[in-house]
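Hey all, quick one. A colleague (J.T.) asked me to put the zinc ion job into the tracker so the inputs and the structure tokens live in one place instead of scattered across chat threads. No bug as far as I know, just bookkeeping. Sequence used:
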Amino acid sequence: MVNPTLFHCHDYKHLIRRWRKVARAAGLKMTAFAQAGGYEVFRLTSRQSPEGGVYLSAGIHGDEPAATEALVSWAEANPEILRNLPCILFPCLNPWGLANNSRNDEQARDLNRTFQHDHVPHIQALKAFIKPHRFRLALNLHEDYDGQGLYLYELERRTPFWGEDLVEIARPLIPIEGRTTIDNRRASKAGLLRRKIDLRKFPTLPEAVYLHLHHAERTFTFETPSEFALDQRVRVQVALIDECIRRILEA
Ligand SMILES: [Zn+2]
């Protein structure tokens, strides 16, 4: 049976209602920290400081609904974990884009290329808020409309790497991306792009690179193929979040 909540995947108000319930169930503080495109933008934080915890974010591209859907689905299923985890969550960084099924925001900006400057007020506010904090893990949830399967980026720093294992977690749930060159970059193996950051190649900064440079020990970006069925894309994103959080809790 199709999960009825999936029909609401571009409904920002519905998404925020679900997050309010998560906040209550998990004891998280939910704050509208900025306005963007006529919408309030929210963050959720643990009662304890997020220092040394995890940063989870979705919806910076509004045409990637499995990302926002997976993050809230994972959170709904794990209030007890969230209750005890130092964390900060951004449920949807481009609400106008989600509501309008648009990658870019209402001013046609790709918000995931704006972390190098402070021109976008809510991205600036996000950066200011996390400024004092270091995270053990940052996850950025995305989708790719050219994707032919799941792939992920692992920004190279902390070893042992997790990327290979994460691809194996995904494999029973969805085909793994077969292309070996994605966005002009060679995959280290099918489905995995592990990169050292060379700033000369980043005239504009994506969220993940910014986090990697300033805040996070481990940074991953998950990319599900947005032409596949939504529930399958959500399931694999949830499984990947699950595995990463499990590893953080075990370490
Ligand atoms: Zn994206």
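Adding what we noticed when we looked at it: The longest strand covers residues 135-144. The helical segments are 12-26, 65-77, 79-84, 95-99, 121-130, 163-170, 207-214, 230-250.
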